[in-house]
Amino acid sequence: MVTAKLGMLHYVLDHVYGAFMHRTKLTPPFFSRGWGGTKLELLERTIKQLFPAEVECQNWPPSLIQPAWKTVWETKTACLKEGVFRTPCDPQLLSALPPESLMARIAFLAPKFVQPQNMACVVHLAGGVHAAMVGALHPTPIATLPFLSPHSAVVAFCEGILKHATAWEALRDDLAVQQAAMTLEEVRERMRHVLSLTDVTRFPIPKNPNAVIFVAATDDGYIPKHSVLELQRAWPGSEVRWVTGGHVSSFLLHNGEFRRAIVDGLNRLQWKEAPL
Questions:
Q1: What is any Pfam family matched here (predicted)?
Q2: From CA 143, how far away is CA 208, in angstroms rounded?
Q3: Once rounded to an integer, what is the mean pLDDT over residues 35-42?
């Protein structure tokens, strides 16, 4: 009984945080400027051309990138650099992206007295579903650690708390300009169709699924449990670790579990000794 009440408290905290951030207009609603006009149609068409159903299970090797680096700060033992580079994707796909997505940015924090071949590199992406995508598409075995992540953006925007932070009316009005009037439910179905492109269960299984560790929250108001389990079932050999909490409280209370998962995932890879 106490556990159930505590879980409800975590769930309520997620809703309170969501209401504070989104309903008070501290942050603008998602997709408040509509669907993107012809660029959305171009994006959908280009993705179908580049990733047809019959080759969905192939790996897509990343392009070589050469960021322009600048040092942000450094101490006697570490250095933080920021890099900027052009988004590495097919020219057709690049033309479908908004201006904000044409350039990518990266921060690189490294110790000064460890040789690169003797240290692991942990890449932190802005969202667990993106980590899952990279882990699926990378051509070599890597540790993949999606934290508090859905299997698809459909879940985040159409089922979790973010559905209350989405500009459904603006999306409906934008569609009404292009075609006949639609109900809000039809607009949501349209959104589900668009965001289904992010469904990671359609992606290849990572090269080393044993090095995949999901960390999920028991009472997450943003990401339902079924979404986490769907991705685990799609990647046999992967592990799910549950922390007691909601989406917000888990970030505050369970950083140790996230760090432990990173270390354990890296330890499940086959390391090669650096040459002397």
A1: ABHD18
A2: 8
A3: 78
pTM: 0.84
Report helix, strand or coil for 29. coil
CA 188 to chain centre: 21
Token pair for residue 175? 């569609």
Averaged over 79-103, what is the pLDDT? Answer: 85
Joined tokens for residue 27: 């942050």
> Around Cβ 107, how many Cβ atoms within 10 Å?
10
Q: Are 206 and 136 in contact (CB under 8 A)?
A: yes
User: Measured in Å, how far apart are the chain's first and last C-alpha atoms?
Assistant: 59
Cα separation, 2 vs 148, in Å, equals 24
Distance CA 54, CA 178 (A): 32
Domain segments of the chain as ranges: 1-30+122-269, 36-51+66-119
Could you read off the pLDDT of 157-216 as tens digits, one per residue?
999 999 999 999 999 998 887 776 788 999 999 899 889 888 999 888 999 999 999 999
Using the structure block, give the residue that is written with the tokens 């969501």.
18
Q: How many helices (H) and strands (E) does the chain have?
A: 10, 5
**Taking each helix axis from N to C terminus, what angle separates 168-178 and 184-195, rounded to the nearest 10 degrees?**
90
Cα–Cα distance, 209 to 78 (Å, whole number): 32
